[in-house]
Amino acid sequence: MRIGSTAICALALIVALPVEAQDYRDLHRAADAAIVSDVVRDRQAERDAKRQPYVSPVYGSIRSATAARNACAAKARDEAGAGARIVGRVNTRSMATGWEVEGEVGPAGGQRSLPFICSVRNGSVSGILLDPDR
Question: What are the domain boundaries of the chain?
Answer without folding.
Answer: 5-51, 65-130
